[in-house]
Amino acid sequence: MRYAMAIDTKKCVGCSDCVVACQTENNVPIGYCRDWVVEITDGTYPQLEIEIRSERCNHCENSPCVRCCPTGASHYEDGGIVTVTHNKCIGCGACIVSCPYDARYSHPEGYVDKCTFCLHRIKKGQQPACVEVCPTKCMYFGDLDDPNSDVSKMLKKRKYKTLIPEAGTKPHVYYLI
Amino acid sequence: MSNTRRDFIKITSLSAAGLVFGGHYVHSAMQSKRLALGGDAGPSRTPTYCEVCFWQCAGWVYKNEDGKIQKITGNNDDQNCNGRLCPRGTGGVGMYYDEDRLKTPLMRVKGADGKQTFKEVSWDEAFDFIAEKMQKIKEEHGAECTALFTHGSGGKYWGDMLKAFGSNNIAAPSYSQCRGPREVAFIATYGEGLNSPEPLDIRDTRCLVLIGSHLGENMHNGQVQEMSDAIDNGASIITVDPRYSTAASKSKFWLPIKPATDIALLLSWIREIINNDWYDKAYVEKYTYGFDELKNYVQPFTPEWAYGITTLKPHHIRESAREMANAAPSVIVHPGRHVTWYGDDTQRLRAVAILNALLGSWGRRGGYYIPDKLSLPDYPHPEFPQPKRTWRDVTNGKYKLADLALASGVCDATIPSPDMDCNIKGWIVNGTNLIMTLPDQQKTIDAINNLELLVVVDTMPMEITGYADVVLPECTYLERWDDLRVAPGRNPSIALRMPAAEPKYNSKPAYWMAKEVAKRLGLGEYFAWETFEEKLDWQLKQVGSSLEEMKRIGVKNLPREYGNLFYAENEEVDFYTNTGKIELYSTALEAEGFDPFPVYTPHMEPPEGYYHLNYGRAPMHTFSRTANNPNLTDLMDENAVWVNPKVAKEWGLQNGQPVYLQNQDGVVSEFPVKVRVTERIRFDSVYIVHGFGHADKKLSRAYGKGASDSQLITRVLMDPIMGGTGMRGNFVTFLFEKESEVQS
What we know:
heterodimer; A: alpha+beta; 6 helices; B: Dimethylsulfoxide Reductase, domain 2; Barwin-like endoglucanases; seven-stranded mixed sheet; six-stranded mixed sheet; globular
């Protein structure tokens, strides 16, 4: 089982609903976030293009953050989800520096926090909060090993890319382009 | 006049309480709480419908194991949201937790030194004062000299109280400052308005045409969702906007039109579609009136003619017209929502309505569907008395085609004038920050200075509360019962809102306030229910449901009563117009002395060094009301002024540099706003998101953040047909420092 997400940049409007839904679902303190929206404008007036995408931890198959964690707090859960065991984390911040996607932040309570793909929801058979709330339905979540999962179907049907592939992290968040 | 002059009072007496609760709030947000076991299907959820904007999506409020409100999610059965709230709805929790909320009733008092301050009073004191003042106004001037301005659920109760009192001066800025011209234009053409949510079958459309409408940035939830469905289905989008909006970036055609020239483009499109025989001949013949006259009328409006006006290349005009025609009748030329732009707005929306008729999209799949709405009986009450003078009298016989009261008209009627026989003396302002909502702020303040009573009902201290005689703190929608939501849609539906938590502080629901004031005015029989639950249960039982059932399901969709969603082929349709047809040629406008066809008139151009002031929405904010919401401010806490790089170079402006904006009348923005240098805007325009630049210090997160477009809208272009206040005739230039700062 390999959990992954595909995000359709053609549909995302950058409303940030994923950000606020994540905050209220996961008690992320105001001023911090586990996911965020990037908007890139290309071209000159009037020949323009924008790519809008919702970003988060890529739950990489080859995660520098897991490798560099001195206490084992950062680890893989079933399905390849990268999480942090809060009470094992000493807040050293090595993982924050090692992440090429800047996906981790230091929680004011002293540990490092990040996206969990809403593991607590997945266990109940639900979708991650960001996927479930998105008004444009631009996010797809599921198991890459299951050819009938939403995410497998979208990756079969559409062109896609990952972020900073040259870092060799094998990210599990795909962007449909 | 001087004895009623109001000094703006900043609500300072509440700061201590604010700090206490602020600390509490931070604590609760930082605690890592898991949801109570049982998850999303558990018993800890409470039904509501959202009040952060007017879309009123139905949802569920969840609490954590400590019984505190944690999150709000959409109700899967709700047609307005399909289980997905927008960022504002999801962030609605911030409205409840905002520590800057109004906390207790306040009354304006004058100290021995003449200084006016707010004093905390009991609810009884506040209501006694209001009732006494209203009686005095009734005796001296007439009951109809008390008016209500409203936005949101509370308006119904205050409106009923006022109607029982003898006034129907009940106005919503959402009409004359927003969608009014659109309603009048569609009534003139099709015999009916569009209301809210608009009956657009976007999910099935093959071509969506957006004219100045920036769906995706204005987060009209159901429409944004359906636009996304349409993209999935391969529909094409045509966006007409001086700014490369988010929707423009999803479009096959972006037409960066010169501001204020939309009617020229529309007329040219109409000509192309007629002259190329691309219109729906059978539909036009069967359903419309005035086609031959229209054909003759539009002959001069070639794409080449429009090019000279709009700066849009003729081949782009032709190709985009072709695109619409290829998709017809599954095409929607979107009517927009905030359409009070240049004063000829009813005529512009008439052109939109005509274009839709030529393409045959009204009543067709992928076009405009026929909405259905439940008719829900009122809880029994005595008949309302006939008011001696109605809201039509306050506009002095002007704007006869307006179908609702004009907020700006009622505001004008508050300033004494020899040709008015009724001057408004009392205002109740419910949930609308008139200072930011009505154009020409000075005029609003002049009107306020002529009042004998100003009551403001709100959850937050807003600019308008500073001018109030009495401030009534309303609890948020998460803490109260409200009337059932009865929205038009593909199916009739009802939604329930019930309290998920006790009201914080000393705040109360508006229905209770209105009933208490009514009782003191001897009008208690109009609010005969004991509890609000009793009233809701009675109403629900009339339509085959019950409060018990609605508490369980939140939303109930009912079968359609008014036939099909779309016209059948060759169906006989009688439109509610003078001719019984879709009026391409408007007999109603002609009868009132207006042009029966839309006419393009050139508008003023910005002087050298000035730029069109365009404004719009951000998806995470609603008007100016969410600017202090902790969750939403976290996503966006200030606006920026969008400037084309060529303009920035000319002025030496850098990205992120703070500047003041000064308009054509010399009004300078109260606060500086940061420059955003971007290719996404024309060189003759700047753009800011509406709702920022709050001047009330009690809004601890919003105060002084960004610039207020409302402050800079001092030139108002009145729509002679229905009294809408066009707000896009304002121009701004950049100042590097404020003159007052230079002098001091």
